[in-house]
Amino acid sequence: MKKVVLFPLIIFAQFYIAQAKFEIKDGSKRFDVQMSVKSCEGDTCSGEGIIKLIDKRSKQIFQTLTSEDLYFYLNQNQKPSVNIIQLYNEQSPLIFDDFNFDGSEDLAIRNGNQSGYGGPSYDVYVYNSTRKQFVLSNELTALAYENLGMFQTDHKRKRIITFAKSGCCWHITTEYTVVPKKGLQKVYEMEEDAMDGEYVTVTTRNLINNKWVSQSKKYKIKDYYKE
């Protein structure tokens, strides 16, 4: 009789991290937020996200938005930040601001790491007073994918500011205005080119009376980039 050798049965259990849920009450003047994300491991959360905007007055759900990859980090209290935009550093999963300077609060939602150098990317929604809901802005979303993370806003000058670079030694800062019913208009650039390793050439371009006015100046790198 042939001997049958029985090998021990090994069962590999898949490690599963349950969906994480958070409440954010201090990010918006109009809304509280109920936010869920597919998974969190350590201090990093990612995956499909659902953002429910709760009207602070009525306590009812105003609108539900989603993200394919709501990627973000948790702070020491195991909570997400909100409304933080730091170049090369923390950028929150949700950013409430008036991006188009029309007086209404808008919302940017983190969607993966698809901006420059694998940085954070955002879907940007503006509040449509006619529809009474947030509507995706393709123009603003493109800015948050094509540059170094989320853009910044200068409310005093009503400018949207983006940052981009190539390697260590070429940087460009670009400013846009919002033209009502037309969209974005680029009005300023500052290019810093330090590719030769000794000098940095700073070129500014300003749109004045629909014409670009350019100026360039060269500095020694050690003098320009003083710590």
Question: Explain this structure to me?
Answer:
It contains two helices and 15 strands. It has 227 residues and is mainly β. The chain is globular, with a radius of gyration of 23 Å. The N and C termini lie far apart (84 Å). Mean pLDDT is 92; it is low at 1-16. InterPro entries: XAC2610_dom.
Short structural description:
The chain is mainly beta and 227 residues long.
What's the helix and strand layout?
Blueprint: E1 20-24, E2 31-41, E3 44-55, E4 61-67, E5 72-73, E6 94-97, E7 106-110, E8 122-128, E9 133-136, H1 138-146, E10 152-154, E11 159-166, E12 170-179, E13 183-193, E14 199-208, E15 211-220, H2 221-224
Antiparallel strand pairs: 1-2, 2-3, 3-4, 3-5, 6-7, 7-8, 8-9, 10-11, 11-12, 12-13, 13-14, 14-15
Number of beta-strand segments: 15
Give the helix/strand class: mainly beta
Task: Assign the CATH topology of the largest domain.
Answer: Lipocalin
Shape: globular
- Give the C-alpha Rg: 23 Å
Strand numbers in spatial order across the main sheet: 10-11-12-13-14-15
- What's the total helix number? 2
Count of structural domains: 2
Q: How far is it from the N-terminal to the C-terminal residue, by CA?
A: 84 Å
Multimerization status: single chain
Helical percentage: under 10%
Order of helices and strands: EEEEEEEEEHEEEEEEH
CATH architecture of the largest domain: Beta Barrel
**Strand residues, percent:** over 45%
